[in-house]
């Protein structure tokens, strides 16, 4: 979270969109900025997972079997102006990537459902769902990718998660089907390939192109990130609500 | 009504009051850009706010946005009905949708903010 915040500062300083992907060393639940800690603690199925709180909004995400990203865009960028534009751009690009693999990925456009605890149980306009992959003819389309933002003074940091497979590290209440569960016959591409294909489309949507710099950002901004870690490591941050 | 308001580039407005206090809120443009507000955290009365620094947060379905103090001062009142009635921000952003009243450290600091015409130009440029 601290590195993502630093990424936002860097995007503001350079005027360039920046993105980072990261993994998780153990199953971890990230809470939205204002979700109640007590609500998370009341769910036995996630009791064994680590808990962190994001600065971004939205519902709780179980990490560990997903592709997690943080995208930072300067506020003056054409897609940094409103929340929906950046959200739609990111998800439209991923929809095209998945469609190229034969997966019926679509942006959700029906009634919002935003009262659920878990992000992947919620639906908002622009969420990425897999059409017709629900369990039964009346089931709603499963959500495969969700994102949420922290809008700072000079930059927007958008967190998002593409669910690759069900997370076995949590109980059934917290499990949501991932790409590999929904379309096993299609053998969805590996995470790195998905990320590459996504960036190839997302770059032009943001007016440029992305290049990989493995680990460079965190190494080059170690002191800044360390200073920001203090706030997130403080137990009052997790317990703020 | 809006002529006496001053604006920050981050879309907060401030209005000096006759009693020396100043009322702060967020612009109609900001509310429209946020869409579907779901939660708001107000500052505590008595809190000191610093110009350009976050004094509160507001959550919409997809985003959490910081609210930035247009000038430095002390929070003397907050609109406690707002968190339960977030639609006031959209319906009446410059009156019933006020967020807090502050006692500015230096009322002259407001002179450095944007007037309505300058703010309208910022919004117009943002829309392109």
Concise synopsis of the structure shown:
The complex is a heterodimer of chains A (241) and B (128). Helices cover 32% and strands 20% of the residues of chain A. By secondary structure, chain A is an alpha+beta fold.
Task: Describe the 3D structure.
The complex is a heterodimer of chains A (241) and B (128). The longest helix of chain A has 18 residues, at 83-100. In chain A, the strands form 2 sheets. In chain A, strands 1-5-9-8-7-6 form a 6-stranded antiparallel sheet. Chain A has a single domain (2-238), classed as BirA Bifunctional Protein, domain 2. With 241 residues, chain A is α+β, with helices and mostly antiparallel strands. In chain A, 32% of the residues lie in helices and 20% in strands. In chain A, helix 1 (2-14) packs across helix 7 (222-233) and helix 3 packs across helix 5. The radius of gyration of chain A is 17 Å and the shape is globular. Chain B is of the alpha+beta class and 128 residues long. Chain B has one domain (2-126): RNA polymerase II/Efflux pump adaptor protein, barrel-sandwich hybrid domain (OB fold (Dihydrolipoamide Acetyltransferase, E2P)). Chain B contains 3 helices and 9 strands. Chain B has helices at 28-34, 87-91, 116-126, and strands spanning 6-7, 12-16, 22-26, 37-41, 48-49, 54-60, 63-68, 73-78, 100-104. In chain B, strands 1-2-3-9-8-5 form a 6-stranded antiparallel sheet. In chain B, strands 4-6-7 form a 3-stranded antiparallel sheet, with no helix packed on it. In chain B, a hairpin with a 4-residue loop joins strand 1 (6-7) and strand 2 (12-16). Classes of the chains: A alpha+beta (241), B alpha+beta (128). The A-B interface holds A 32-34, 55-58, 76, 78, 81-84, 87, 112, 114, 124, 126, 147-153, 156 and B 10, 33-36, 38-39, 41, 52, 57, 59-66, 68, 126-128.
């Amino acid at each position: 979270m601290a590195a993502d915040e630093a990424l936002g500062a860097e995007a503001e300083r350079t005027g360039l969109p920046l993105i980072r992907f990261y993994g998780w060393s153990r199953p971890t639940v990230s809470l939205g900025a204002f979700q109640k800690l007590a609500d998370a603690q009341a769910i036995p199925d996630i009791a064994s997972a680590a808990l962190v709180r994001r600065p971004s909004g939205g519902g709780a995400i179980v990490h560990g079997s997903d592709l997690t990203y943080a995208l930072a865009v300067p506020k003056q960028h054409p897609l940094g102006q409103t929340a929906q534009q950046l959200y739609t751009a990111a998800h439209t690009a991923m929809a095209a990537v998945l469609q190229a693999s034969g997966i019926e990925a679509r942006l959700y456009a029906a009634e919002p459902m935003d009262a659920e605890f878990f992000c992947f149980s919620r639906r908002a306009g622009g969420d990425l769902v897999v059409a017709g992959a629900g369990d039964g003819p009346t089931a709603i389309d499963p959500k495969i990718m969700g994102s949420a933002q922290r809008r700072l003074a000079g930059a927007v940091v958008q967190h998002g998660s593409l669910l690759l497979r069900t997370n076995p590290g949590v109980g059934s209440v917290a499990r949501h089907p991932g790409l590999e569960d929904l379309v096993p016959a299609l053998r969805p591409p590996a995470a790195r390939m998905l990320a590459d294909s996504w960036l190839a489309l997302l770059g032009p949507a943001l007016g440029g192109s992305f290049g990989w710099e493995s680990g460079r950002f965190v190494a080059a901004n170690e002191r800044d990130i360390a200073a920001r870690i203090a706030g997130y490591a403080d137990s009052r941050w997790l317990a703020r609500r | 009504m809006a002529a006496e308001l001053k604006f920050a580039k981050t879309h907060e407005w401030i209005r000096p009051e006759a009693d020396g206090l100043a009322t702060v809120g967020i612009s109609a443009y900001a509310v429209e850009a946020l869409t579907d507000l779901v939660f708001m955290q107000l500052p505590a009365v008595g809190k000191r706010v610093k110009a350009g620094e976050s004094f509160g947060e507001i959550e919409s379905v997809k985003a959490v946005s910081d609210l930035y103090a247009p000038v430095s001062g002390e929070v003397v009142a907050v609109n406690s009905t707002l968190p339960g009635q977030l639609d006031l921000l959209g319906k009446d952003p410059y009156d019933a949708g006020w967020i807090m009243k502050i006692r500015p450290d230096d009322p002259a600091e407001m002179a450095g903010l944007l007037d309505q015409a300058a703010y309208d130009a910022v919004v117009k440029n943002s829309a392109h």
